[in-house]
């Protein structure tokens, strides 16, 4: 029996008066890949950014309800602590252009004022880059800037930066939408490896990607979690008519 790592209870989020995520109740099992899909503007990104308390960084944005990480309520934790446990990778690879590859991997420690011995830094850099299958490619170029890498490599570097903080959960907001098909395939392959150690929640517009990489899929529509099920079940036998219409391409 898989254990639940994240559980949202009546979770709502707002931009001012605009109620964009509505009463979401969802249980996410550990070491699973969860795809979050739905039409544009339905609240996928807002929901994702709520899980590590990034939503509230927007002026006027607020949220209520509960998000349990194991037994602890994220809504009551210090946001910095939450973000160390729940990392985030964005749509466009965003390595720090002025930092070396080595320092990019360690950027989270620097930003949080965490000091490490050189041997520890070396270990984290090697382990993190190994976990994203980038170590062999870059081990002789660690002092070069992160921007010399290809788009796909840059995205893997950003994943290494998140992994370096030893999170339990990784959030991905359309992580391959800015990548070519070959880089996309490499990152998708990586998800299968990463889920051995982490729980992955991925917002994607790409239904084939959701079908290829995820164990469970959540379908959002107008801020509501309409359907949440095993991915196979969702794509072969959706229960809600709105899900059915979406996956058969009747709206996008
Ligand atoms: N920074 C913001 N300030 C105010 N409203 C916002 C902001 N970001 C998003 N919204 C609004 O919140 C709603 C949900 O947006 P969100 O980006 O979460 O949807 P989405 O499903 O991720 O869309 P997409 O697939 O287009 O990225 C939309 O009505 C959007 O206009």
TrEMBL record:
GO terms for cellular component: membrane. Keywords: ATP-binding, Hydrolase, Nucleotide-binding, Phosphate transport, Transport. GO terms for molecular function: ATP binding; ATP hydrolysis activity; phosphate transmembrane transporter activity. Residues 6-247 form the ABC transporter domain. SMART domains: AAA. GO terms for biological process: phosphate ion transmembrane transport. It is an enzyme of class 3 (hydrolase). It holds the Pfam family ABC_tran. CDD domains: ABC_PstB_phosphate_transporter (cd03260). Its EC number is 3.6.3.27. SUPFAM superfamilies: P-loop containing nucleoside triphosphate hydrolases (SSF52540). Signal peptide: none annotated. NCBIfam families: 3a0107s01c2. PANTHER family: ABC TRANSPORTER I FAMILY MEMBER 17. This is Phosphate ABC transporter ATP-binding protein.
């Amino acid at each position: 029996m898989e254990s639940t790592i994240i559980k949202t209870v009546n979770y709502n989020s707002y931009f001012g008066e605009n109620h964009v995520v509505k009463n979401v109740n969802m249980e996410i099992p550990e070491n699973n890949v969860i795809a979050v899909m739905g039409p544009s503007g339905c609240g996928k990104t807002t929901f994702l950014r709520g899980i590590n308390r990034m939503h509230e960084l927007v002026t006027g944005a607020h949220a209520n309800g509960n998000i349990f990480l194991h037994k602890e309520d994220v809504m009551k934790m210090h946001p910095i602590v939450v973000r160390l446990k729940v990392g985030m990778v964005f749509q466009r690879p965003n390595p720090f252009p002025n930092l070396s590859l080595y320092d990019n991997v360690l950027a989270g420690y620097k930003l949080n004022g965490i000091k490490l011995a050189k041997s520890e830094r070396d270990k984290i850099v090697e382990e993190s880059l190994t976990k994203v299958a980038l170590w062999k490619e870059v081990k002789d170029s660690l002092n070069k800037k992160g921007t010399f890498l290809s788009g796909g490599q840059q995205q893997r570097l950003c994943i290494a930066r998140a992994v370096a903080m030893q999170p339990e959960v990784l959030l991905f907001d359309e992580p391959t939408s800015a990548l070519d098909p070959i880089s996309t395939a490499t990152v998708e392959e990586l998800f299968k490896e990463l889920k051995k150690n982490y729980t992955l929640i991925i917002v994607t517009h790409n239904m084939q990607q959701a079908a290829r990489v995820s164990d469970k899929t959540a379908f959002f529509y107008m801020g509501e979690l309409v359907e949440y099920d095993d991915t196979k079940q969702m794509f072969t036998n959706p229960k809600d008519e709105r899900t059915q219409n979406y996956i058969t391409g009747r709206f996008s």
